[in-house]
Design goal:
With about 190 residues, this protein is an alpha/beta fold. About 40% of the residues lie in helices and about 30% in strands. It has one domain: Rossmann fold, CATH 3.40.50.10610. It is built from six helices and seven strands.
Length: about 190
């Protein structure tokens, strides 16, 4: 009888470790069915709202997202400096949350068909007891510049503390790896 309990316990433990090896992930996507995404050739990535403790996290994530989006070859992403000039020219009061009218002005100022805005909700290390791991949570929206309406919205959360982190220790995955996974997920959501 003891052998059966020991075997069952081992099987349950291994199943728990296997399931816990997966990172947490969240995925909510909206695509406007009326929008012709093929007509979008040039986009501007606006500064991201930063709701984290790291004051530079949003800039880091914006830079990585811009590079990843540009590397797809599907879109031309306007450089950050040109976006900043366009924000000043269009007199956008809050670049992280422009109004539809401001998006239209920005579109004509820097000649883009779409603007991407978003927010960084979590970035960095999280702790639970003695376990620690890196996590990122970001949501983005694409607004077309003719009317300023939202045509795509996506979010992604990657990383976090797994059961194996709690049982065996370890610090989870590196922050750059977690960030790349989340941003790749968002790009996949955009192009589907």
């Amino acid at each position: 009888m003891k052998r059966i309990f020991a075997f069952t316990g081992c099987v349950l433990f291994l199943a728990l470790v296997f399931v816990s090896g997966c990172t947490t992930s969240s995925r909510d996507v909206y695509h406007d069915e009326k929008m012709d995404f093929g007509a979008v050739q040039n986009v501007a990535v606006m500064p991201l709202a930063n709701f984290t403790r790291d004051s530079l996290a949003a800039d880091r994530v914006r830079d990585v997202f811009t590079n990843k989006l540009l590397s797809t070859g599907a879109l031309y992403v306007v450089p950050v400096g040109e976006v900043a000039k366009g924000i000043a020219k269009a007199e956008i009061a809050v670049p992280t949350a422009p109004s539809p009218e401001e998006v239209v002005k920005l579109g004509s100022a820097i000649k883009v068909q779409a603007v991407i805005i978003g927010a960084l909700r979590e970035y960095g290390e999280v702790r639970s007891g003695t376990a620690a791991a890196n996590v990122i949570s970001v949501n983005l929206q694409m607004l077309e510049t003719q009317t300023g309406r939202v045509v795509w919205s996506g979010s992604s959360t990657k990383g976090g503390i797994t059961v194996s982190d709690r049982l065996f220790g370890g610090g989870g995955q590196p922050m750059d790896y977690v960030t790349e996974k989340a941003l790749n997920d968002l790009i996949d959501q955009l192009f589907k």
